Amino acid sequence: MDNTALLDQINTAIEKILETGQSYKIGSRSLTRADLGELKTWKKQVENEIASGDASNIDGAYVAYFDGR
User: Fold this and answer.
1) Which residue range(s) make up the domain with 15?
2) Is the residue at 61 inside a domain?
3) What is the pLDDT of residue 8?
4) Could you tell me which of 19, 20, 13 has the C-alpha nearest to residue 34?
5) Is residue 64 part of a domain?
6) Which of 18, 25, 32, 47 sits at a 20 to 30 Å CA gap from 11?
């Protein structure tokens, strides 16, 4: 996934939290979304990587290559 697509997903996650809240509960089930503060930090990192043109080192992210075996 390229950084632009990743940034889109982060922005979508942030929007969902802002629209519907950090967590909610229906009956006995509950859902807690990703931490808003962490998403904002990650967003800033990705934006900096895009601006610098270097996508090789984003803290907390791992890159995996699968060769289809």
Assistant:
1) 3-52
2) no
3) 95
4) 13
5) no
6) 25
* Better-predicted residue by pLDDT, 64 or 26: 26
Domain tally for the chain? 1
User: Which pLDDT tens digit goes with each residue over 31-59?
Assistant: 888 899 999 999 999 999 888 876 555 56
Phi, psi of 56 (to 5 degrees): -85, -15
**Above 60 in pLDDT, residue 69?**
no
Task: Report which of 35, 34, 54 is spatially closest to residue 45, judged by C-alpha positions.
Answer: 54
Residue at 47 is within a domain: yes
Distance CA 35, CA 22 (A): 7
- Name the residue with tokens 């984003």: 58
